[in-house]
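> forwarded from #structure-qc
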């Protein structure tokens, strides 16, 4: 019993390394995403704008889903970082394309239009799911 517990603890360094990388990539994603979008997600969320909160939460899920797939399937931290960067780029492109598909998406989110926030979140999560599935080589 003690042997099993001790051998299980041997995975802690890998856990910490992958978790730290995941948090770093998440912070990087948040920074780049909030820089690319023309509206201030955090200010809108602080102002109790549900459309902004929904859209941003969808983007976080849409990024984290393939990132978790990259962690699960990667061969090394570098491999994980590369696929995490791919997930980041795909999510940024998803916002840009969905902004073209739904005219004035950022303005609508800023104005609190729930439909716009849900559309944005739905696009982000859907593409994130597909992205994650494609990473399960």
């Amino acid at each position: 019993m003690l042997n099993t517990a001790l051998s299980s603890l041997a995975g802690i360094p890998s856990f910490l390394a992958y978790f730290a990388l995941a948090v770093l990539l998440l912070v990087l994603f948040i920074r780049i995403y909030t820089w690319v979008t023309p509206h201030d997600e955090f200010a809108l969320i602080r102002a109790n704008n549900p459309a902004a909160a929904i859209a941003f939460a969808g983007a976080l899920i849409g990024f984290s889903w393939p990132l978790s797939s990259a962690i699960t399937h990667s061969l090394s931290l570098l491999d994980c970082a590369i696929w995490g960067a791919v997930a980041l780029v795909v999510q940024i492109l998803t916002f840009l394309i969905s902004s073209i598909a739904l005219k004035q998406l950022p303005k609508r989110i800023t104005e609190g239009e729930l439909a716009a926030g849900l559309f944005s979140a739905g696009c982000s999560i859907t593409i994130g799911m597909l992205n994650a599935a494609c990473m399960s080589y």
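QC bot note: The two ends are 35 Å apart (CA to CA). The CA atoms of residues 67 and 113 lie 29 Å apart.
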